[in-house]
Amino acid sequence: MKEGRAISASPALELRGVRKQLGGRWVVDGVDVAVSPGEMLCILGPSGCGKTTTLRMVGGFVAPDAGGITIDGEDVVGLGPERRPTAMVFQHYGLWPHMNVLRNITFGLRARGVPRAGAVAQAREMLDLVGLVHLEGSMPTALSGGEQQRVALARALVIRPRILLMDEPLSNLDAQLRLRVREELVEIQNRTGVTMVFVTHDQDEALSIAHRVAVMRAGRLEQVAAPATVYRDPANTFVASFVGRVNLLAAGIRGAEVVLADGSTVGYVERGGAGPNGSGSVEVAVRPEEVILDGDGGSGAEARLIRRVPRGHFDEALVEIGSTRLRAYLQPTATSGERVRVRFGRILVYSAGEQPAPV
């Protein structure tokens, strides 16, 4: 995960109170965020949360109903896509099927009046950047999904945008190709220094490539922070459950113990989260890697190992404490059905009764 960057005094992109109503509801409802020059911001959220609409408003494809959007301090609301210093890579790439790779990339430059020789030279420079010089004469239908994605990226970069917008550009790739292409994307962003806003519903993708992650729900940003912060200190139970796996428990806190619904108690080592510090009903979030399992002779609450699921380099374990079931990312030596002992490492505590907003 990348380290977060502090927002500079002069952000490359800023959204202030941006709102958009579609179909009688606010799909974007008061978004405030600033993006530093050279930063990659990932907007992460479930389908229908407003992330693509937000991106399209930045690109000029959709007009906001309220709020302001500035790029390098200049108000761009009211400007069409062709008049904004932005470029967009869409989910379905949108390559011209009747043009070869080189002509696809030069198209935007030629439309802006760049002479053919200059456009070709710049296009070949971008092809070299994405590693596809050898395919400049190929037609899009002859390319793999990863190659098409890189052509679309080169076509966007060749016009030298100040802001590059990417709408789930890796969603059509298989798992292994997606991993490779997103690594290439990070390298390209580091080499060009272009400011990027990247929309995705894949939390692993966001955590692995972003300088900061903006978690969105029902048109609002729930948290904007560095990936490590979003994962380790989520602002609420929605963020905790959407970013990574988590055990969510309606519980109480008594000293250094979590009191489960049936009265069972589990000791814990460290506490985080945004909940009250005193006793009473709370919601406790425990990452699976913080569920510590020992053999039956060890310390901790008595539990039963229900099932182990091999996940390659680790086992996912389902354990039961009284009537509560938990998932753990450890490799216990016990077999299914045997008794184990459970302790918690770091827990996250939130006020009880938080209900996820509809999406």
Give a verbal description of the structure:
- With 359 residues, the protein is of the alpha+beta class.
- It is built from eight helices and 19 strands.
- The strands form three sheets. A six-stranded mixed sheet has the order 6-7-8-3-9-10, with helices on both faces. It has a five-stranded mixed β-barrel with strand order 11-12-13-19-14. Strands 2-1-4-5 form a four-stranded antiparallel sheet, covered by helices on one side.
- A hairpin with a 2-residue loop joins strand 4 (66-71) and strand 5.
- Mean pLDDT is 88; it is low at 1-8.
Please describe the topology of this protein.
Layout lengths: L12 E10 L2 E11 L4 E5 L6 H9 L6 E6 L2 E2 L10 E4 L11 H11 L4 H14 L15 H13 L5 E5 L7 H18 L2 E6 L2 H7 L2 E6 L2 E6 L1 H6 L4 H6 L4 E8 L2 E3 L5 E8 L8 E6 L4 E5 L5 E10 L4 E7 L2 E5 L10 E13 L8
Helix pairs in contact: 2-3, 2-4, 3-4
Count every helix, treating DSSP H or I runs of 4 or more residues as helices.
Answer: 8
Compute the average pLDDT.
Answer: 88
The shape is elongated
**Order of SSEs:** EEEHEEEHHHEHEHEEHHEEEEEEEEE
Largest sheet: 6 strands, mixed
Uncertain ranges: 1-8
Structural class: alpha+beta
Classify the beta-strand content into a percent band. 35-45%
Radius of gyration: 24 Å
Read across the widest sheet, the strand sequence of neighbours is 6-7-8-3-9-10
Number of strands: 19
Helix content: 10-25%
Measure the end-to-end span: 27 Å
